[in-house]
Amino acid sequence: MSTVYDVTLALLGAAILLTAARLVRGPTPFDRIMALDVLAVLLVSGIAVRATARDEPASATILVVIALLGFVGSVSAAGLAAERADRT
């Protein structure tokens, strides 16, 4: 079963690298905001896989906090996009 966890973590790592490239390249601020949101989801996924592999229920608190931060970021990005759409 550890092979499944290793492969999953490797794929999540590759996704994090690709998302970080999108974060750096942009080209718009909205692309960067969405890349940060995707990074938050990938981080939560990686911590969940690690917690499952090591049978650590204490990581649930960290998962909830990071997920809430990602949610707040998404709502803020949607508000920013709506505000910009109203100005044009």
Automatic annotation (TrEMBL):
Top-level taxon: Bacteria
Coiled coil: none
Entry keywords, A to Z: Cell membrane, Membrane, Transmembrane, Transmembrane helix, Transport
Cellular component aspect of the GO annotation: plasma membrane
Topology relative to the membrane: Multi-pass membrane protein
Localization annotation: Cell membrane
Regions that span the bilayer: 33-53, 60-82
Principal place of residence: membrane
Single GO MF descriptor: sodium:proton antiporter activity
Similarity section: Belongs to the CPA3 antiporters (TC 2.A.63) subunit F family.
Protein name: Sodium:proton antiporter
